[in-house]
Each structure stands twice: as C-alpha cells, then as structure tokens.
Design brief:
4-stranded antiparallel sheet, 207 residues, alpha+beta, 41% helix
Length: 207
C-alpha cells in the first residue's frame, strides 16, 4: 500500500550542479560556511583542487543493465556475509519519484549535522528530529509529506543551467551519496553499503 501510494508522488529532479545542490541545502538549513563543489576528475592533482575538509560526496551516474547486475550481486554478497553499519547513520529509502538528488543532499547533511552546525529549527533539522529512531522505510515515507523540503527542492530544481524535466518525467541518471566511514547511501538499495574506513580522507577513499 505504501509503495503503491508513493508511485504517485514525484518531484522535479535536481540538476547535477553544485550551485543547485548548495541552493537547496541553504534553503533547508546548511550554514553559509559550507557548500557543494565540483570534483573535476579522479587524478590526484584534480582531487587536490577540492577544498580541504570534505564531509560528503555525491555521485550522479547513468543507469545501465550492467550496473543493475552489479547491484544485485552486491546485495546477495552483503546479505550472505553481513556488514557493520553504525547505529548513528541516517538513511532514507527512496519512495518519492525523481527525488534521488534531494535525498543525496539530505543524506550528506543529515550525517554531518553536528559538523556543519545544522540548526535544529531549520526545515531539515525539524525533519531529522521527526524521523529520529524510525526505520529507513518509515523515514522515506515521511519525506513525501515533508512540504518544506519539497518546496525547497522544487524551487532549486527550476534554477538550473538546463531546463528542468517535468514532474514524473522518466530519467535514466541516479544520485547517491557517500559519507564517512565510507558509507554509500542509495535510497533505492535495500540498505546502506559499508565500503570500509576512509582513513581521514573521504574524497580520496571514494575516488
């Protein structure tokens, strides 16, 4: 019943643009000392251009049958072998259509709320308080009714360099987030994926 209802809930997707992501983050509570920036490549000299203190990484990629096959194999391996996941990790399942960019931003901020100084009274701070202690499924369901986050996401989506797709448009790209230590947070997967410690260099570990 939940998933059937969520199939009817779609948001305008966010563009993979640091200004757009920062704009959304600011609207929901990110202090001005923090921002999203581009990663221009995986070479060490390009990674060095990213300001120090990287707290999270977002990745946009094109979906493909090969990636879907890898995802299924990864799921089976983790179910069989198990993994350790911090109880402090904030993770939402994605039920809202085209909201992967928004959810990736939420994952980045939610898992660094103290580090970035996210105000408790901000739209995202209030949402995090509301979902505290809930399952990823319940938290993802509540996102559909989070009107302030929805409004902030929609307002940010229309400010991109390219024309924003229509609500409900079919898109073949997907956002995920990485937060220390390194956890991959993909709302379309069954659970977070622990890729191992970052050794104090999240960006380098993700790269």
């Amino acid at each position: 019943e939940v998933q059937a209802r969520m199939l009817r809930v779609h948001w305008v997707p966010l563009e993979s643009n640091p200004d757009i992501l920062t704009g959304f983050a600011r609207k929901v509570g990110l202090p001005s000392a923090w921002e999203f920036v581009d990663v221009l490549g995986m070479d060490p000299e390009l990674l060095a251009m990213v300001p120090p203190g990287c707290a999270a990484v977002t990745l946009l990629f094109q979906s493909s049958p090969r990636l879907q096959s890898y995802k299924e194999e990864q799921h089976k391996r983790i179910v069989k072998q198990g993994q350790v996941v911090s109880p402090e990790l904030v993770y939402l399942k994605q039920y809202v259509g085209n909201a992967c960019g928004t959810i990736a931003c939420i994952h980045c901020l939610a898992n660094n709320a103290k580090a970035v100084g996210l105000p408790d009274a901000s739209p995202l701070g209030a949402f995090l308080k509301k979902i505290s202690g809930l399952s990823p499924e319940a938290a993802g369901e509540l996102l559909a009714d989070a009107s302030e986050l929805h409004q902030a996401s929609e307002a940010s989506a229309v400010g991109g360099q390219t024309a924003a797709p229509q609500v409900g448009a079919s898109v073949d790209h997907h956002f995920v987030a990485f937060v220390s230590d390194v956890y991959e947070l993909d709302g379309c997967k069954a659970f977070p994926v622990n890729h191992g410690p970052s050794q104090g260099d999240l960006l380098g570990a993700v790269a």
